């Protein structure tokens, strides 16, 4: 009976003494774990041909997209009430769902181009995150600009579904890349802020790490999509 509480107290004490560097590294490891799940499932669906059966199901794409949105909304809204394990499980579940959707991109663009764009995205993403961490930038003031840019992208993204925007779509791709590079730098600084704010509460600190991993994962995915969209337009 006395062993379990002692073991738990040791674990909590270890989490309290986790350095900022260790905390940042763990957050990024969870983000990359999500990316590996997504691209692993996407590649497996493409290689085995299983994705062809998935998208033969009526409204499969709509159902997957809806389930993805519900998962993100649930995780974001319940992050304070979920256990750390449940939060991580939901994050990986979302990454797996996204992997099914991403199989479609392997069908459209092929493995070589997908790997090339993934590498390019990782390079740009890593540069922005590195600059933010090394120079310890305070980017809290750019959030309104980033949110405004995101609303701009959503609005014109919806318009492009019904109207032929022509060369303006290229401008939209560049704008998307700039916006999500900005979000990458901003969300990286939030890891440091969360460490300072929640360092006294190890459980909240770990939940904040999962949420930061999700935000960075979404930054990477959206950056990837705008880069591959831009490359496809230039090729045309």
From TrEMBL:
Transmembrane portions of the chain: 28-53, 59-77, 89-108, 114-135, 142-162, 208-228
Keywords in alphabetical order: Membrane, Transmembrane, Transmembrane helix
Membrane topology per record: Multi-pass membrane protein
Pfam family, one: Bax1-I
GO cellular component: plasma membrane
Superkingdom of the source species: Bacteria
Compartments where found: Membrane
Family of the protein in this entry: Belongs to the BI1 family.
Protein name per Swiss-Prot or TrEMBL: BAX inhibitor (BI)-1/YccA family protein
């Amino acid at each position: 009976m006395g062993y379990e509480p002692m073991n738990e107290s040791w674990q909590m004490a270890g989490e309290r003494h986790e350095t900022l560097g260790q905390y940042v590294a763990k957050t990024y490891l969870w983000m990359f774990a999500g990316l590996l799940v997504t691209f692993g499932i996407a590649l497996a669906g493409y290689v085995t041909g299983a994705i062809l059966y998935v998208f033969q199901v009526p409204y499969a794409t709509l159902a997957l997209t809806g389930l993805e949105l519900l998962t993100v909304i649930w995780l974001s809204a319940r992050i304070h009430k979920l256990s750390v394990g449940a939060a991580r499980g939901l994050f990986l579940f979302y990454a797996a769902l996204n992997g099914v959707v991403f199989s479609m991109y392997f069908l459209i663009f092929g493995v070589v181009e997908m790997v090339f764009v993934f590498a390019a995205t990782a390079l740009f993403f890593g540069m922005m995150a590195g600059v933010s961490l090394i120079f310890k930038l305070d980017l809290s003031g750019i959030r309104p600009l980033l949110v405004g840019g995101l609303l701009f992208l959503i609005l014109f993204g919806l318009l492009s579904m019904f109207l032929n925007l022509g060369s303006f779509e290229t401008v939209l791709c560049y704008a998307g890349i700039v916006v999500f590079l900005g979000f990458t730098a901003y969300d990286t600084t939030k890891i440091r802020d969360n460490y300072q704010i929640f360092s006294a509460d190890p459980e909240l600190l770990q939940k904040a790490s999962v949420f930061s991993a999700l935000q960075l994962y979404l930054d990477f995915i959206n950056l990837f999509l705008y880069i591959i969209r831009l490359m496809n337009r230039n090729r045309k």
